[in-house]
Amino acid sequence: MKPAAEVTNVLMVGVGGQGIILTSSILAAVAAESGLVIKKSEVHGMAQRGGAVSSHIRFGQKVYSPLIPAGEADILFGSELLETCRWLPYLKEGGKIIASLQKIDPPSVFRGEKPYPEGLVEKLKAKDPQLIAIDALKEAVGLGDARVAGIVLLGSLSKILDFNLQLWLDKVKEMVPKKAVEINLKAFQRGRELAGP
User: Fold this and answer.
1) For residues 77 and 132, what is the distance between their CA atoms, to the nearest angstrom?
2) What burial class does residue 108 get, using C-beta atoms within 10 Å of its C-beta: 0-12 exposed, 13-18 middle, 19+ buried?
C-alpha cells in the first residue's frame, strides 16, 4: 500500500450491463468505510445498450479531482477485453491489470465492418507481466448466475488492495440484491482464489 498522503487510482471499465457501476460502488464504500476520502466519477455511454461504461475511483487522505489523468491509474479493472485495452493509456508504469477474458462485439464488429481484434491478452501482458486474466463470465455461469461475473473480478481486486476482508464481505452483502447475497459471496471468494496467493 502507498504512503498515506498518496492517492490510489482505480479505473473500472466495461460494457453496459456488466455491473461496473455496482462493483465501483462497492469499492468506493469499502474505501470510505476505511476512513479515506473518496472521489468517484462515472461515464455511461448508452450503458443500457451495451455501450462503454467507465468509473474512476480515487481514494486517499486528500483527493481533489474525481477524474484519473492518463498514465496515472494504479489499477485497470476491465470486464470486457477490448474495453480494457482501449483504456491502457491510463495505466501508470508498473500498474496492475485485472481483466475478464469476456468479448462483447462492439458495433463495428457486430455490423461486420471489422473483425474483433486479436492478441489483446498479449497486449495487456506487455503492460503488466503479472496480469490477472480471468474468464469471469465462465466462472459466474459455473456458480449458477452469469450476472455475478463482475463480483468475481471484484474478489480478485480485493487481493491487491489493502482493505479489511470482512469489510469487503459486509459491503457485498449490503449492496447486492438481497436474494442474491449468497451467490455473490461465492463469486467474490472465487475471484480471490483465482487471483493467486
Assistant:
1) 10
2) exposed
Q: Does the global pTM surpass 0.90? A: yes
Q: What is the pLDDT of residues 169-195, one digit of tens each?
A: 999 999 999 999 999 999 999 999 999
The cell for 88 is 491502457
Residue type, 177: P
- Listed in order, strand segments (DSSP E) in 34-121 are 37-44, 52-60, 73-78, 91-100
Q: What is the set of domains in the chain, with CATH numbers?
A: 8-103+121-194 (3.40.920.10)
Partners of 130 in the β-ladder? none
Summarised one tens digit per residue, pLDDT across range 28-58 is 999 999 999 999 998 876 545 668 899 999 9
Calpha distance 135→149 (Å, rounded)? 9
Q: Alpha helix locations (H) across the chain?
A: 20-33, 81-86, 107-110, 120-127, 136-143, 149-160, 165-175, 181-194
